[in-house]
């Protein structure tokens, strides 16, 4: 069984000058003709196989995670072959994958914002799992584990999900004022990222109901409805995510759905008898060795730390809100949530401050 493989390796070596460049590695088109089916590659009766996790792996901001991946040959080879490993991340807003890490022998290199946070876990010869430390909001998504054998390469997909919270966001200047690029930026300014469809879907399953359409990372505009009603896609229509489809990223304007995960640090309420203006509120947090909280931070603290305060307070964007984990009379609706007073032009309130630590 092994003999034909060796012969083919020699043939491959003799035509190396004309090989196409593929995924950053030389790749032999001749070998590709030997048949690829069902996610496995065959050469000389030996198949390179990849195994990943079918279920998404879940973590949260600030956590560490291992994305499992292993490879093997079938039938088993007598001697190990030299391989390269490449991990990349699929991007929802682009057809091009982002490089995460490449490894060959004992050498490896990671890229972009993964630098210094990723390594391979190889507790056995066959394991090529990816460890990501100090996960941030941009890390959620699908990752490709690719093993390149010199002759062929095979890959599998692992999904990293983040536990988090989705919140609709409407900026100071009003409803439906954000194009796609501004929508992305608006979320980042609130210490969040623009949500994916999966994240919106999970929040809808948890009861999110919002009758204003918002951008998602894939460039579509959608909104989640749990209680069907006339102005929100129709009364006779089943609950679900209403979809306006893909919209023009520069010309069309909507709100946005933002996503945040666990909070690094704490959010707390600060008040004084006569209240604060927005400017006084910012100063009060600074005087307390903190800063005025962003909307995403208030949502994180509410969702992950059960922050519950029945007092309206300023946030950095000029909105006034309060978080309720345990609904009770005189504190808004019967469901837990972050209540909003919009963007008051005047008036004095307390303030929500954020302290990293
Ligand atoms: C993540 O891993 C690093 C390095 O091993 C460790 O210092 C850190 O405490 C870990 N973080 C968590 C949240 O477990």
TrEMBL record:
The residue range of the signal peptide is: 1-17
Give the keywords, sorted. Answer: Disulfide bond, Repeat, Secreted, Signal
A GO CC annotation recorded here is:
synapse
* UniProt-listed PROSITE patterns: IG_LIKE, LINK_1, LINK_2
Subcellular location as annotated: Secreted
This protein is called Hyaluronan and proteoglycan link protein 3
Q: Name one Pfam family in it.
A: V-set
């Amino acid at each position: 069984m092994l003999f034909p493989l060796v012969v083919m390796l020699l043939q491959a070596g003799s035509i190396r000058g004309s090989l196409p460049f593929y995924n950053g590695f030389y790749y032999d088109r001749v070998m590709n003709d030997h048949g690829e089916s069902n996610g496995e590659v065959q050469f000389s009766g030996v198949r390179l196989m990849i195994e990943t996790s079918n279920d998404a792996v879940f973590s949260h901001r600030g956590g560490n995670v291992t994305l499992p991946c292993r490879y093997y040959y079938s039938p088993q080879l007598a001697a190990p072959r030299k391989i390269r490993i490449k991990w990349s991340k699929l991007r929802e807003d682009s057809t091009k994958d982002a490089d995460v890490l490449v490894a060959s022998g004992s050498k490896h290199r990671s890229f972009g914002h993964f630098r210094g946070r990723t390594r391979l876990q190889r507790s056995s010869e066959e394991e090529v799992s990816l460890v990501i430390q100090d996960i941030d909001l941009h890390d959620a998504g699908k990752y490709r584990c690719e093993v390149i054998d010199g002759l062929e390469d095979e890959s599998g997909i692992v999904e990293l999900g983040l536990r988090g919270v989705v919140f609709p966001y409407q900026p100071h200047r009003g409803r439906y004022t954000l194009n796609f690029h501004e929508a992305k930026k608006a979320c980042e300014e609130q210490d969040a990222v623009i949500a994916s469809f999966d994240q919106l879907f999970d929040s809808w399953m948890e009861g999110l109901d919002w009758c204003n359409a918002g951008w998602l990372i894939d460039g579509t505009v959608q909104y989640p409805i749990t209680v069907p009603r006339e102005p929100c896609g129709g009364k006779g229509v089943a609950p679900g995510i209403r979809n306006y489809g893909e919209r023009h990223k520069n010309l069309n304007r909507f709100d946005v759905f933002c996503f945040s995960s666990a909070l690094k640090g704490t959010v707390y309420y600060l008040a004084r008898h006569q209240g604060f203006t927005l400017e006084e509120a910012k100063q009060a947090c600074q005087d307390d060795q903190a800063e005025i909280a962003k909307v995403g931070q208030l949502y994180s603290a509410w969702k992950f730390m059960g922050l519950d305060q029945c007092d309206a307070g300023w946030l950095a964007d000029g909105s006034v809100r309060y978080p309720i984990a345990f609904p009770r009379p005189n504190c808004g609706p019967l469901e837990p949530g972050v209540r909003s007073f919009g963007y008051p032009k005047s008036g004095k309130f307390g303030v929500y401050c954020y302290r990293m630590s």
